[in-house]
Amino acid sequence: MRQVFMALAVLLGVALAQAPVKVGVLAPLSGFAAADGRSALTGIELAVEEINAQGGLLGRPVELVVYDDQADPKQAVNFARRLVELDKVAFVIGASYSGASLAAAPVVNEAGIPFIAAYAVAPDITRDKPYVFRMGLLGTVQGRVGAELAHELGAKRVAILTIQNDFGRALEAGFRERAQVLGLEIVYRDTYPLGNKNFTPILARLRAARPEVLYASAYFSEAANLVRQVRSLGMEVRVIGQEGYDSPKFIELAGDAAEGVLITTTLDRDSTDPAVQRFLEAYRERAGIPADMVGASGYAAMQVMALAAQRAGGLDGEALREALAQLEEVETVVGHVFYWTEDGDPVKTATVQEVREGRFRRFMKFDRIEVLKP
Amino acid sequence: MDWVTFGYLAVDGLAVGSVYALTALGLTLVYGLLRVLHVAHAGVYAVGAYGGWLAYSATEHLGFALAAGALAATLFGLFLEWWFYRPLAGKPPLIPLIGSIGLFLATGDLLRILFGPYQQSLPALEPRPVLFLGAVGVTAPQVAVLLGTALLLLGVYGVTARTRLGLAWRALAQDLEVASALGIHPPRHTALAFALASALAGVAGVLIGVYYNQVYPTMGDVPAYKALAVVVLGGLGSVWGTVAAGVLLGLVESLALAFLGNAFPPEGVAFLALIVVLLVRPQGLFGR
Q1: Which Pfam families is this protein grouped with (chain A) (predicted)?
Q2: CA–CA separation, B166 vs A373, rounded Å?
């Protein structure tokens, strides 16, 4: 009889220990941002697989609860509420755009559950929300790195083309701020709406201003059209983009026109870190296409959360938040994070990648903290 | 503004406008015969683009891609006509219109489920200038779009104005009952007109796919409402009105963007033009 009890107790113990850790994911899996949502989720899934293969998180398997927010703030709020109230997740990874993340973060924050925005750039996502953190580089920081790069290239006359959303505005603000310090002259400036296909009218005017560098914010599908049309107008201008361009699809869609385009981003394909190379390979195997910054950021966000949970030794929201805030000198596939600021934004390295022979290659590494600090 | 910049704008506006015309033309044909605004036409356009992309991936030949795009779109259009529009014939026009919007949305998601959310590349033509008009370079995709549209428009004009088929369609559009009494079989002609309209949408889809080197599930979103604006602008059911409105809209958009910048979204130009024209000529530019 005693043996039976013992056996039951052991079984019960195992069952309890193996109750999965539920992790919430908000990602745009349909709608205009579906490609990015798919990439981010793939990165998160890869990280979870690795964690589970290594015995799970705190000895328990990780289970994802995924909702498709369509990058729509209304849906993001509803699903965020669902995640914290019904699904009772341990933490949430926001694998969506700024608009949706801005809407979801306060809900999760109020519930006292940690939230990490994988790649959304709007500064306000983390402001005054102690439980909200970020994995990606802030838009303003990336804009500054862009201006540094233009300066590095020896350019004096620059043109700015900005996508009309938080992402574009933040990039332009950072670029302008640094351009002034560095003495760059802005000879042309214009904006365009998300989803724009035809840049020729803008470029025809920009052409007449004769800039040496075009700093253009865009997501990869707009970016592909942009650089194709730069080529079709026979312009010699050097294009500097940022992480929105960071997708193998950009190179595929732009074709030859992508050659020589520089982007500031966080995924360094030429990194000598074996963890980065392992990730790149695992991603390609799973997704069938090379990894992009968004996928890598999803992967890194999941890993950072897991690291914090291990440091905290549990999944209590407050302890997890505390552990996250104290993480420093963390090596991730999207750069070396020096530390997280009080707002929850990472101070981390950036990389400049250049398209050469149809692939992203490292152009330079950027680690000057005074520029990288939000 | 110097002449070279203006030249670039004009070529770009003409090329984009001619694809508007091509997309909207099918819509006009369908409206002429069925009296429904076939919103799902933009879904047919996306299906055509995917057909072209699949064929191009397999053969790397633009001709096959265009033919496959036309075929895929025709089959899909015929399916919609037979399975959806035919049973709803004679119902108040709001019913097929609302259903059509639903069908359009479903088509985009169906394409996403089948082929994934990523933009697919259709790299049939490089965007390099191949022809120079003075200092203004014209690229291969622009030439293809302009030439393709011109040929198809002539073809459609030939069919509608010069053949017995076109005569029958015009008779049906004018008075369905009298035309039927005279021995014209409405269902067969509606299906034929649907097939032609869908094939045009399919070709337009492939051409736009080549023009921007992108084929993706939501590519019909903008054409869905812009083509409607073009059709109304041109005068509902008028073939030449549609063509003129499409080309004009492309030109105006291009110039408006260059002169006014993005003070208001370029997508708004179509509707601004629509409002102005409807205030002055409620029947549209070429409507009677």
Answers
A1: Peripla_BP_6 (PF13458)
A2: 69
